[in-house]
């Protein structure tokens, strides 16, 4: 049952990314270019995500336990350290330069292009490197 729910959730997420324009790197870069030729259309995507999350969390917390698990699994760490700041900065730079973040990049992989292949390759390389450098933390 978890696999079916995971598949349906991933399908809805990928459809949402596609319909909202998040898989179009030019639109994303235009949204991030607040000092230049800013494209504000993705603000509606962001607003919809915030509202959905706000309402969704309130409904889920009323249940007390998840539908397909014994307990909710939330992050325990709340501190801000150098690793978190470096990772966030690298994510932001990669997103700003390419117009892709991991979810939309994977969704877009069905229409592979050279820039997308380069992003996916460097994403996997960064993931591999991060696991090697952070062992034991």
Automatic annotation (TrEMBL):
It comes from Halomonas litopenaei. The keyword Transmembrane applies. InterPro entries: DUF6691. This is YeeE/YedE family protein. Keywords: Membrane, Transmembrane, Transmembrane helix. The chain crosses the membrane at residues 41-61, 82-100, 106-130. Pfam families: DUF6691.
């Amino acid at each position: 049952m978890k696999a079916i729910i995971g598949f349906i959730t991933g399908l809805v997420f990928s459809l949402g990314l596609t319909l909202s324009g998040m898989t179009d790197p030019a639109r994303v870069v235009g949204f991030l270019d607040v000092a230049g030729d800013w494209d504000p259309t993705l603000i509606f995507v962001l607003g919809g995500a915030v509202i959905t999350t706000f309402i969704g969390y309130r409904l889920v917390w009323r249940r007390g336990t998840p539908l397909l698990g014994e307990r909710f699994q939330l992050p325990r760490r709340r501190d801000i350290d150098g690793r978190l700041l470096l990772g966030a900065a690298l994510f932001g730079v990669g997103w700003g330069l390419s117009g892709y973040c991991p979810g939309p990049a994977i969704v877009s992989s069905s229409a592979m292009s050279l820039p997308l292949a380069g992003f996916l390759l460097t994403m996997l390389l960064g993931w591999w490197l991060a696991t090697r450098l952070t062992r034991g933390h």
